[in-house]
Amino acid sequence: MLKTRYTIAYVALMTLIVVASNFLVQFPLNAEVAGINLADILTWGAFSYPVAFLITDLTNRQFGPQAARKVVFAGFVVGVTLSFFTSAPRIAIASGSAYLAGQLLDIAVFNRLRRQAWWRAPLLGSLIGSALDTVMFFSLSFAAFFVVLGPNEPFALEAAPILGVFAAEAPRWISWAIGDFAVKMIVGLVMLLPYGALMNVLRPMQPVRAG
């Protein structure tokens, strides 16, 4: 019964993060850092979405990978449903695929490292999962090679200076991906604080085998 209540709470939190991220992705981050106009490469959704990895890791720590996968799949259903109502089909497919692959990889990495130093499993799990999420989402959404999923976006494929400041040029979606992953790395590090604060409260309910 306690496990069920906690799992429902984790599902609710994951749903909240997915919904919030789908909403916040509409709003560019109007700021400038080191000459980089962040509004060109980032939205506020980039800051909320990585919190999903914290929810997955806390579920995994407390109840193990099976419960964590249930929470991830619940978020997947919500995320894909919202994406098909608010985005082009290609973006919805990319978003759902990247979310599912990234979160499941996070669970696998976390579970393999759970017996090591307390910070290693959540940090490496979220960073490796985020890397896959970023590569999959931006490639499937904008790379010309994946036109089979839907029409290409000409603006995303236009060559432009990387991050708007470097001499080297690349399709605009490359800069979007770099900016997105940079934020995920920063948020992943910040999320170690709440994870560390909660790990002694949300103790594993039963032994979970690593690997």
Describe what this molecule looks like in 3D:
By secondary structure, the protein is mainly alpha-helical. The protein is built from 9 helices and 4 strands, in the order αββααααααββαα. It has a two-stranded antiparallel ribbon. The longest helix has 25 residues, at 89-113. It is globular. The two termini are 27 Å apart.
Oligomer: single chain
Separation, N- and C-terminal Cα atoms? 27 Å
* Category by helix and strand content: mainly alpha
Unreliable residue stretches: none
Number of strands: 4
Q: Per the principal axes of the C-alpha atoms, what is the gross shape?
A: globular
What share of residues are in beta strands? under 5%
- Mind telling me the C-alpha Rg? 18 Å
Helix-strand sequence: HEEHHHHHHEEHH
Count of helical segments?
9
Percent of residues in helices comes to: 55-70%
Tell me briefly what this model is.
This protein is mainly α and about 210 residues long. It is built from 9 helices and 4 strands.
Layout of SSEs?
Layout: H1 2-24, E1 32-33, E2 36-37, H2 45-48, H3 51-63, H4 65-86, H5 89-113, H6 120-142, H7 154-157, E3 159-161, E4 169-171, H8 172-190, H9 192-198
Antiparallel strand pairs: 1-2, 3-4
Helix pairs in contact: 1-3, 1-4, 3-4, 3-5, 4-5, 5-6, 6-8
Protein name: VUT family protein
Organism: Rhizobium mulingense
